[in-house]
Design brief:
The chain is of the alpha+beta class and 218 residues long. The chain has four helices and twelve strands; from the N terminus they run E-H-E-E-E-E-H-E-E-E-E-H-H-E-E-E.
């Protein structure tokens, strides 16, 4: 499948290895049979971002220096905006973030998942699309904040951690065939709801819902 992944290493904890998050990105690409499958990653000191795309999905990774700090974006999705050329999707949305801030996701026509690292404020932004066509999972751990579009990619983080099963998830899966959001099969890993903007800075995480269904104004 297509998706994004990344790790933010905590100050004083284990550093990211030279290989970065290559293993995480490969986990995202499991099952991809399209010859156009592409996996791109970038390591920027304490943070690394990655994106895996194939088939009709567009995306990638882009970064730029602003005011002596790095700003980077990882994105995967399908877009209906005529001004988002397939060959430069990450660069296009990086420019939009620099101009509009993270609120630009509210004005996108399409389904996409984004990760934005803003070194000017040491903030990591993550967003899901309105119906969460592209999944996003996070693990807020003592040594790292790690995210990915597949749980298997999170488990491949370059900073190892032990994931423990939630017995309640087995009951949920057997009884209803689903595990309700934000829970997952693992205690340490959460599922990000649809239409969310998540911001992680200085060890604190905030969520904001940017859209909801309004049947009075379809």
């Amino acid at each position: 499948m297509s998706g994004i992944c990344g790790v933010l290493a905590r100050p004083g904890g284990p550093p990211l290895p030279p290989s970065g998050i290559d293993a995480m990105c490969r986990r995202l690409a499991i099952g991809a049979t399209d010859a156009t499958s592409v996996c791109a990653t970038v390591s920027l000191g304490p943070v690394a971002l990655g994106a895996s795309t194939f088939g009709r999905h567009q995306g990638g990774v882009a970064h730029i220096s602003r005011d002596g700090h790095v700003v980077a974006v990882a994105v995967v999705g399908s877009f209906y905006d005529q001004d988002a050329p397939r060959a430069a999707v990450p660069e296009h949305f990086l420019a939009r973030y620099l101009e509009e801030g993270i609120g630009f996701v509210e004005r996108i026509r399409g389904e996409a998942v984004f990760a934005v690292w803003d070194g000017r404020s040491d903030t990591l932004h993550l967003t899901t699309d309105r119906f969460r066509f592209h999944s996003l999972y996070v693990a807020d751990l003592p040594e790292q904040f790690v995210f990915a579009s597949r749980i298997g990619a999170i488990l491949a983080s370059p900073i190892p951690f032990r994931a423990t099963l939630r017995p309640e998830a087995i009951v949920d899966a057997v009884g209803t065939s689903i595990i309700p959001t934000p829970a997952t099969a693992y205690r340490e890993i959460s599922k990000v709801p649809p239409a969310q903007r998540l911001s992680h800075r200085a060890g604190a995480t905030t969520f904001a819902t940017y859209w909801d269904i309004d049947f009075r104004n379809p």
